[in-house]
Amino acid sequence: MRVVRNLTGLLGFLLIWEAIVRAGWVDQTDLPPPTVVFARIGQLLGDVEFVRDVVASALAWLIAMAISIAIAVPAGLLLGSVRWLREATKAIVEFLRPIPSVALIPLVLIVIGGGPEAKIFLAVYASVWPILFNTIYAMAEVDPLLVETARSYGTPRSRILSSVVLPHSAPFVFTGIRMAAAISLILVISTEFLAGAKLGIGQFVLEASSVSGRMDLVLAGTVVAGLLGFIVNEGLERLGRRLFRWNEADEGATA
């Protein structure tokens, strides 16, 4: 039912867009109608070069997410469980967190260069924070009574972490990963566009807009990027519902 409602809203938006352009209210050169844009997408998906760009962006996103999770989850567990360490690192974390990743592009290009490493680094930098803070928050939300009960039975600290803390923290951590997935994809494509990568959807959009001035290609690339983001978010949402059904049941019982 939710999918039907979403598709109905999307279809309505596309029909309004098509009607406005066909009525001549907007020049088709500046804003091609959706029928033209989707026809162009169909052509592009048969173009090996464009498919390579999509794969390059998706692969960079996947690598960035793997690195972000590998860094942020253990760091969040450590900071969430060791109070003095959390307090000692609070100043530097709060200093680094608000810095926009795109503001670091010139520095990253100088230090790392303009290869795939640049967009992966910037995506990791932006993605680490939501995972880290959700993990720290998750640690704070664990019921102290459960931890104390495990300790009273002589359960080792490592066993408490794996059998008590992690299962109760997992839904919060996964929410952070979902948030980071969207941020990471945005950063990958933005860096490709702003830094002029050799491959990627952002590079395709940059070339289409600056070299050929083809708005149909620009919008086609943009829509493909949006579809990729939708697929990632929808896939993670479905995975989360499957993995954490017990958490939804608990919330329903509490409500």
TrEMBL record:
The chain crosses the membrane at residues 58-79, 91-114, 120-140, 217-236. It comes from Amycolatopsis jiangsuensis. GO terms for biological process: transmembrane transport. GO terms for cellular component: plasma membrane. PROSITE patterns: ABC_TM1 (PS50928). Pfam families: BPD_transp_1. Its main location: membrane. Keywords: Cell membrane, Membrane, Transmembrane, Transmembrane helix, Transport. It is found in: Cell membrane. PANTHER family: ABC TRANSPORTER PERMEASE PROTEIN MJ0413-RELATED (PTHR30151:SF0), ALKANE SULFONATE ABC TRANSPORTER-RELATED, MEMBRANE SUBUNIT (PTHR30151). This is NitT/TauT family transport system permease protein. Belongs to the binding-protein-dependent transport system permease family. Residues 54-236 form the ABC transmembrane type-1 domain. It is a multi-pass membrane protein.
